[in-house]
Amino acid sequence: QKSKSETLYNKGMSFFRRKNYKKSLSIFREYVLKYPKNKLSPNAQYWIGECYYSQNRFEKAKDEFQNVLDFYPKSSKAPDAQVKIGIIYFKQNKQQQSLLELKRVLKMYPDYERREMVKSLIKEYR
């Protein structure tokens, strides 16, 4: 049987997949508030960022991805959040900052499974 926290998390993901970002956002916010130390908390925080990103609200998204790095630096979502911050800077025409953020991923997360993707983004953004 699923725990209450897992059920709530899955509900947030379900709304996200259906592109109901507003509903997904409120569920993930509730999750992070109710279960700040849970194993899925870094993921919920990451998806808050994705909700804003999907609505092209890049400044808000960047803040939320930064929260993943600040509050869950050791989580598996930290490098993903770092990549997203780099992508957002690029979308905001801040190429130098973008490259800096993406290179930071390669330096800080040597075992990151999406290293090749990050390298190709760096090449593309140069």
Number of helices: 7
Question: Using only CA atoms, what is the Rg?
Answer: 15 Å
- Mean pLDDT, all residues: 97
The largest pleated sheet is described as: none
Order of helices and strands: HHHHHHH
SS elements, strand count:
0
Shape: globular
- Helix fraction, binned, reads over 70%
Structural class: mainly alpha
Low-confidence stretches: none
Q: What fraction strand?
A: under 5%
Give the end-to-end Cα distance, rounded to a whole number of Å: 49 Å
What does this structure look like?
This protein is mainly α. 75% of the residues lie in helices and 0% in strands. The protein is built from 7 helices and no strands. The radius of gyration is 15 Å and the shape is globular. It starts with a helix and ends with a helix.
